[in-house]
Amino acid sequence: MTDLIHLSADALAQKLASKEVSAVEVTRAHLDRIGAVDGAINAFLHVNTDEALLVAAGVDRARADDEALHPLAGVPIAVKDLIVTRGQPTTAGSRMLEGWQSPYDATVVRKLRAARMPILGKTNLDEFAMGSSTEHSAYGPTRNPWDLDRIPGGSGGGSAAAVAAFEAPLALGTDTGGSIRQPGAVTGTVGVKPTYGGVSRYGAIAMASSLDQIGPVSRTVLDSALLHEVIGGHDPQDSTSLTDPVGALVEAARRGEVEGMRIGVIRELQGEGYQAGVLARFHESLDLLRSAGAEIVEVSCPNFRYALGAYYLIMPSEASSNLAKYDGVRFGLRVVPDGAPTIERVMGATRAAGFGDEVKRRIILGTYALSAGYYDAYYGSAQQVRTLIQRDFAAAFEQADVLISPTAPTTAFRLGEKLGDPLAMYLNDVATIPANLAGVPGLSLPGGLADEDGLPVGVQLLAPARQDARLYRVGAVLEALLEETWGGPLLARAPHIEETTEVGSR
Amino acid sequence: MTAVTGEIISFEEAIQKYDPVLGFEVHVELNTKTKMFSSAPNAFGDVPNTNVTPVDLGLPGVLPVVNGVAVESAIKIGLALNCSIAEKCYFARKNYFYPDTPKNFQTSQYEDPIAYDGSIDIELADGTVFTVEIERAHMEEDAGKLTHMGGSTGRIQGAEYSLVDYNRAGVPLIEIVTKPIEGAGARAPELAKAYVAVIREIVKNLGVSDARMERGNVRCDANVSLRPHGREQFGTRTETKNVNSLRAVEHAVRYEIQRHAAVLDTGTPILQETRHWHEDTRSTTSGRPKSDADDYRYFPEPDLVPVVTNEAWIAKLRAELPEPPAERRKRLQADWEYSDAEFRDVVNAGVMSSIEDTVAAGVSASVARKWWMGEISRRARLAELEPAELGVTPELIVELQGLIDAGRINDKLSRDVLDGVLAGEGTPTEVVEQRGLAVVSDDGPLLEAIDGALAAQPDVAEKIRGGKIQAVGAIVGGVMKATRGQADAGRVRELILQRLGVEG
């Protein structure tokens, strides 16, 4: 059954549909894999063994009865622990929510349940999705399956590592400044940030509401498209959700066509600060796309240089307000200090104990940026930059159908390497942040291994808002061409992970 | 923290020395079925923390959705206050930590309210009209309700713990803010009361709020400042919070004018602060310091999209507006031919609409007034309900009055009939029959009773014979007592006078 874990979601779906394998077998195989390797990876904060098997058994019964089933019914999935789920804890990677169980399901989780996809468990993340390495989780870092001494990216390192380590064929992530795409890049997996509003945020614990977006994590472009179609579409419970239908994403991924398309290389997202091996792989991808008939053009987005600065004002501002609700009054951690426990002191002690340093750093930054007398200079200016970045994108998309860049400037760094230098950590997201500020969709796919360290490199595709299908169309072509050069999927070259004797769920 | 009370000068002296400037923030709770941003019921008086969804508790991951009916109510209020309606407006977050605010921010509107720049005429009792300029009316959500336990005062100071009920959290509010009101002079307290009364009446008439001040449906924050006569610049203001009855608004404004004057007389500046109103002592005490720099870190609510209006929508809502209360009152008083005093009493008793319906059902305006101001109001006071809440329908009054007019029952018996109807015993006619309440109309038994009464009070009989006809009441009373009320008092009077040979 070990082979099952190496199959794509699409391949699993076909084997399930033809009754070649059962959903219980598929789910059991992944649970076993989690039991065997997650002691080393720490991708999961909670493993949902019983419910996952129950759902899988239900799918098998339904299939035996010839009930109509969703194509992904029985294909298991992992869910980032920022997304609330009934019946399982949701921690957001924080002590603040340790032991908390949501009384409601996120809209995307309801959709997974409707499709009858067994949920394997909840994946690790930087606390409240604040970080680029998953080292800011209150429950220990997740390790990169390519090198256990390296970070799996962040904040969605758990989802990316779970998929890269064959613990799950699919996962959900959330992307505020690159939290799906950058982990995808450094783990050799595929991650998509949909158009803002394309997927309901209801039930995704908010970091920065105007930037957050839930999206798919997978090992192939087609698998992300399959999952994207499950979770996408309008949700009346999310006022910022688009009313458009989700679109023919799977069809776009299956068709995979770039001939005659103009692909724009963003001048500002290369060069200084980018690792040589990253740029080498990136240029190979450009050559492959050119060989497939695409026209490669260069576009300039001069205001992207302000993106990181604007992001680190808007994101903490919104986060400072979104995280105010964690006060020990209604749910989660409550710390009652000695002496007269006034409400102010309980709130203060709870927040002091419940939040980690990075969260506090951002709350303080955001509170400052929104303060009277500073608002215009900080939050106000940042919003103006946001408009400029949107204009840069609009101009670029006049010249190109999709844009392309490296996803992250470097390959995975070592655990602890940047913990003491928040600014260096923030630079990881320099190429992914503009898409969040403009609300446009982005996809990261594996571009190969960097020569100098043998670690995965990510290639990012960006499309105009509501044109997510273009990402899948181009991504599928590039993926096929690259796999041809590699002689198979990149992850086939990942090192073997020592299986431990640890069995069962934690 | 309680400031010294009692240091005030007389109102007359205060007004002689200073010119008061007023300003009001009135919060109106809408009576929408659901809350401002969630599908939880908007209902008063339910078991604490039952009308809540994850959104109202601010649980992780939740998102707000704007209540479209509340937006329409806001626009209607704006139109009734002669405001301009914004083509596009945003919600904003007002950030502050307090346990009655589940998200630790209130979703409100900041820079661009849905309605702005209005005005409303306020008519005082003597007919003087003040025009109050409205700065804005904006949408927001109510907070939960805190109950402080274990202390003697019910306030947070000294309490051992506090209970919080989030049923009210998220209830739609419209905050109506006036521009500074100048020139009211000695009429300031009266104007304050009249202004709040008009707002209450407008929102009630629009049907957008239950407008019951005792339930907090309409809550007033009253701003008062004084300046020496002739000076243009405003003085420092205080904001007396949550003054929740019309009488209290009047008293609070009056008190603050007296207190400000006393403070200013000593040469001390007024401290810009909120004040608490105490109904028992009819005075205010210091709340918290309030400066213009209170930092709520407002920013646009990123979880909501802008509210966009258009002319067709606004025109439709405008067309649906009911007749303005002031115009309606003028029309009804003229139609009913009530004196000013009679009409004022009817309005104050809250039975104007009931009388209108009853007249429409087919009795005269004076009969409708007799019922609603008399028996029904009396019962309402006993039951601590509004007269309209007793379940007395216009049709019931028409039938009861018909029985009286036909001489089948008298006024006294009609009260028993009403008892029976309200107890579910059937229609008035059925109750009359079942309870055997018909008036004794056979003169035989009546004459017997009259003779008995005359014999019992020979001195009274003598007075009547002597021409003191007003003394007949005592004999009538005796007869009514003897017949246990089942006699037509008018007929009894006639018979007594006949018996005594006196001309009525």
What are the salient characteristics of this protein?
heterodimer; A: 506 residues; alpha/beta; Amidase signature (AS) enzymes; eleven-stranded mixed beta sheet; 11 strands; B: 504 residues; alpha+beta; Arc Repressor Mutant, subunit A; nine-stranded mixed beta sheet; three-stranded antiparallel beta sheet; 16 helices; 39% helix; 19% strand; elongated; disordered N terminus
Give the CATH superfamily of chain A: Amidase signature (AS) domain
Proportion of residues in extended strands of chain B: 15-25%
Assign an overall shape of chain A.
globular
Strand order of the largest sheet of chain A: 1-3-2-4-6-5-10-11-9-7-8
Weakly predicted, low-confidence segments of chain A: none
Chain-averaged pLDDT of chain A:
96
Please tell me the overall pLDDT of chain B. Answer: 91
Give the helices and strands of chain A as they follow along the chain.
Answer: HHHEHEHEHEHEEHHEHEHHHHEHHEEH
Structural class of chain A: alpha/beta
Relative strand content of chain A = 5-15%
Euclidean distance between termini CA atoms of chain A: 22 Å
How many E-type strands of chain B?
A: 16
CA radius of gyration of chain A is 21 Å
Q: Kindly report the greatest chain-chain contact and the residue count on each side.
A: A-B, 43 and 30 residues
Count of domain modules of chain A:
1
Low-confidence stretches of chain B at least 5 residues in length (pLDDT < 50)?
1-5
Radius of gyration of chain B equals 29 Å
